[in-house]
Amino acid sequence: MAVIETSQGPEWKRRTMRQQWYTWLGWLVGTAIVAFSFKLISDKTIWFFVTDAGTQAIDMASRMVPPKWSYMDTLWLPIWDTINIATIGTLMALVMAVPVAFLAARNTTPHPTVRAAALFIIVSSRSINSLIWALMLVAIIGPGVMAGIIAIALRSIGFCAKLLYESIEEIDAKQVEAVTATGAGRAQTLAYGVVPQILPAFAGISVFRWDINIRESTILGLVGAGGIGIQLDASISTLSWTQVSLILLVILGTVIVSEWVSAKVRHAII
Amino acid sequence: MTSTSPVNYPSTWKKPPLIESDLVRRGLWLGFAIYLALALGTIDVNWGRVAEGIPRGQKFLAAFFPPDITSRWDSILDGILESIWMTVISTVVGIALSVPFGLGAARNLAPRPVYLFCRAVIGISRTFPEVILAIFAVKLFGFGPFAGFIALSIGTIGFYAKLLAEDIEDMDPVQAEAIRSTGASWFQWVNYAVQPQVMPRMIGLAVYRLDINFRESAVVGIVGGGGIGATLLTAFDRYEFDSAAAILLIIIFIVMILEYSSGYLRKWVQ
User: Per the CB < 8 Å rule, is B129 touching A140?
Assistant: First the structure.
């Protein structure tokens, strides 16, 4: 905020002249970058298809209604598989994420090099999407639910470990000190000083990740890793749009239910 | 004189259980065990295939090393740049679109019909993973980065508008009332009372979303949405795993840079 003295007395302005110039410069550079990106994208776009999209959308929508309700019979097993991929994948991820988180937290790590290694595990697991993990795992252990579970697990380690180690770093040191003062060993200090403090956060993180994993596991089938994505892929490939719309409705329903469950559980815990 | 009998204090201490009721606790464990048994029972694992896959997996992993950046450098660079431009523009457009939806989805700002409509849009775009959005974008707009851009923009709306709306709902009403009492119009009110309160957090979230969009841009390519994902899929399909490893390392590297800079920027803004 700046007050500029003029002959008519002080005048109030939001920014000084210099700040104003920097703001404009920032906007100019930002706009230039966006315009440049758009040009590069538009060079690679066949605009005829884009202008045609409206008619295509109407056409596709008209082929999608009404959903083919009878197809539901074949969908129950894939839904069950999808939920299992998310649930078991999350459980496996949690089992692996807990030690990684303890190694990555500044106050529980045995050595800085160990911490760096743990942080690298976290970042690489987070940067590679579960679909890419699934792509690799299908090549190794073959298509099926198992590849999906492991893909979800590998992807979730980073997320869970990151949030968990942040909450370990934020714990109250006094309680840990009190437990240490009773003569507790290292493991006992962890069990009675640290773990009770992070348990609510842990539960929250698990449910949160489970909810995300339900969404992610719906697409793993596209690369052959089980779940409802297989049916989605097959239906799109055979252009059976009435089945596609039913699958989308089913995914919507599953996600809404899982969101409701996770909200309830989080509410009950915290 | 009455003699008080000595009270038998317990000499050992037991951790109090997390859930008070014994029945509920055991019931939950039992239900969980039954679910796990059922879920594991339905996973159809072809152990022969897994056993066969393990040496193949070793060969597969060995093929990743050493990562080979040079021999496919041109297409890798092309894919990376395409991903970056796609990320930039979809973040900008997505956030620009999420502002009206975010304002509309805040209960203290919008009338009820507008609120319900905006919440529905946000809910739907949040339900479907970017890859499913990308499948449909590719159907409508043709192959290439334009489809990826559309998918990521829609994904951004679901994420950003929801958080914006929640932030507006949590804002301090006193400041909002102060501005309103000066006789400000609705737009002035939003500009001077709402926007300054939510801005710091929103800038941080914008950078976070940029980070997410880059990661997602690596997978929309798998379904034809352009970007580094397309290059990665080609590398997998051609069994050029050393190039694939190089691409994965580059993705991890860029995500790490984004993550560090976003943490730095968020600290600077707040």
Answer: no
pTM score, whole prediction: 0.80
Q: What is the pLDDT of residues B59-95, one digit of tens each?
A: 777 777 777 777 778 888 888 888 888 888 899 999 9
Which domains occur in chain A, in start order?
A: 2-64 (no CATH), 69-269 (1.10.3720.10)
Supply φ then ψ for residue A57, to 5 degrees.
-65, -45
The three-state (H, E, C) secondary structure of A203-241, written as one string: HHHHHHHHHHHHHHHCCHHHHCCCCHHHHHHHHHHCCCH
For residue B200, pLDDT over 70 is answered with: yes
Instruction: Supply the CATH number for residue B257's domain.
Output: 1.10.3720.10
CB contact under 8 A, B129 and A215: yes
In which element (H, E) is residue A3 found?
A: strand A2-6
Say what the ipTM of the complex is: 0.78
Q: Could you say which residues from 136 to 165 on chain A have a Cβ atom under 8 Å away from some Cβ of chain B?
A: 136, 139-142, 144-146, 149
Is residue A172 helix, strand or coil? Answer: coil
Interface membership of A76 toward B (CB under 8 Å)? no
Please say if the pLDDT value at position A166 is more than 60.
yes
Helix ranges (H only) for B128-240 are 130-141, 145-169, 173-181, 186-189, 195-220, 228-237
φ/ψ of residue A46, rounded to 5:
-90, 105
Mean pLDDT score of chain A: 85
